[in-house]
Amino acid sequence: MSGLVPTGSVTAHVPALVSQAGERAGVRFLEFFTANIRNPNTRRAYARAANEFLTWCSDVGVPDLAAVAPLHVSTWIELQMQRLAAPSVKQRLAAIRHLFDWLVVGQVVPHNPAASVRGPSHTTRTGKTPVLDPSEARQLLNSIDISTPVGLRDRALIALMVFSFARIGAALGMKVEDVYTQNRRLWIRLREKGGKQHAMPCHHLLEEYLHAYLVETGIEDDPKGPLFRTISRGTGQLSATALPQANAHAMVRRRALAAGIKTLIGNHTFRATGITAYLKNGGTLENAAAMANHASTRTTQLYDRRRDEINLDEVERVHL
What we know:
three-stranded antiparallel beta sheet, 7 strands, hpI Integrase, Chain A, mainly alpha, 320 residues, 2 domains, two-stranded antiparallel ribbon
């Protein structure tokens, strides 16, 4: 056993409490992340929570893995609530609960100390993701200089997220062959969470932007390669490496600043912007959910920010 957990882009050390429990405990701990969790983002988040919790347990004097009790879990959760938002704390508690479930089934520990611990209550009906007005989204797309490969790439990526409601992870996971022609229209294929594939036709502007990107950069001849790529140093040309999510986030912030947009946007902004614009123009919540590949319209409602405009109009009714 190497003592390391692969978690996507990071590698986490096996905590001391697990190592001290023996080889079997260490293997079972590794298997929880490698065999049980397929989503790299979930794997990374769960590994971080598990390592921080078990390291904290060692620091406060918990003698071994089997001695971890509900009191330890609840105390650690209280500490997390002092610095993290409720959804983040709930995710961390879920990580600890699922990890110990896995260890109990593997007969590493006799009980799950997190099973009886309640997380913070959290209810939301609207999302907190910053959303752009349609005119701002158009302003951003029009501001991008498309005389270079990086400009063509950035315009195509932003447009893809706006017009197809794509998650950034699904967009960056696309290959060139995931843009294809069907019934004389350009279609895209997205690989969503859980390995699900989701295909939909392109908006005419997205079709235009993707076609220009593929043809003018020459990557249409590399169907198995990543669709959105990094730029090779010193050449200004696309590399064969997929664009990382952090780079995409930095790009949209940089593009927004250059376009004079003051809203502090992120990758998820465009998914919410597209859904809100669609609903404002007469689209239905059910169709928006299908286009966004949401299992429930309740999830889609978190991206519906039409009420923001209503609230602003009402605020302006206060005349002094």
